[in-house]
Amino acid sequence: MILEDIGYNNQFEAFRIENCPEGLETGRVVTVHKDRYIVRTITGEYEAEITGTMRFTAKDREDFPAVGDWVSLTTYEESFAIIHQIFPRFSILRRQAVDHTGDVQIIAANIDYAFLVQAVDRDFNVNRLERYLTICNSGKVSPIIILTKTDLTDQQRIDVLYSAIKGRIRDIPTIPVSNATKDGLEAIMSIIQKGKTYCLLGSSGVGKSSLLNNLSGKTLMRTDAISLSNNKGRHVTSRRELIVLENGGILIDNPGMREVGITDTAGGLELTFDVIATLAKECRFKNCTHTTEIGCAVLEAVENGEIEEASFENYQKMQREMERFGESVAGR
Question: How many CB atoms lie within 10 A of CB 111?
């Protein structure tokens, strides 16, 4: 194995040459267990922990390694290592940490594409897709929508869902797939490139682990049977893990996410709701809140149907959420 097989590139090599002392190895974090990390290098996998200096100087969770990170480390016998430094990330998926007000949780780092996985049964929710799109746009990750469990419905239902997506989300590839019949798998495999990293995002039970198993051709993740009462599978992935496919693509499976709190500070919301952002420039007042103001171009677009009311309400909800998060961070 060479490092390029797990996503290494010239950008990381340039940083290593400039900033990493001689004698340190380079590796990628493939699994995180609380404060322990599994790091893959050209010589094997090591269970690692960070230096005391890294722990002491960390200001928040973003200063700790995450799955997908490239790190410099010292390796020892018995497959143990000490992480000294995290390489700069070219992309990052983050959300509000659950039950920790004002904190950020890193979902994964150095991701090229995110598969936004939703089942065509009761899980389907365009509002949630817009949330996933916002964290992708904020983190500089390219999104691809995957609709799973198509074998549980008919083509008419799939067409309706496809139209619902296209009515609110533009220019994002959408691929229907069945993990049971394997219809649609070839379309996904055709876009997976060697050396590129793909992250699976979705709620519990939407078929992410089954999709990973099918794409790899192996049973890498255990899956539970579909419940007859609610047509939902029980999610069994309990941690984030990086896996290399036979065609050279790199996949990161994630535990199901019940909450996707917005922490956007990089314009992700404006990119997701680009029509609203563009129309906002035409409002009569520069500080228009798009609620009750006279001369609001956004409200006018909602009234005449140019913007779906549900999408506008979702935008407002995430905007308020982002503002509250910013206030929580400022008050810490």
Answer: 27
Residue 317 is part of a domain; what is its CATH number? 1.10.40.50
Mean pLDDT value of segment 76-85: 92
| Same-domain check for residues 130 and 34 | no
Number of separate domains in the chain: 3
Write the DSSP symbol of residue 78: T
At residue 8, the 3 state secondary structure works out as coil
Domain range holding 287?
273-330
Q: Cβ-count burial of 10 within 10 angstroms (0-12 exposed, 13-18 middle, 19+ buried)?
A: exposed
Q: Say what the pTM is.
A: 0.87
Between 250 and 240, the higher pLDDT residue: 250
Q: Which residues contact 202 (CB under 8 A, 6 or more apart)?
A: 115, 116, 117, 118, 123, 208, 254, 256, 257
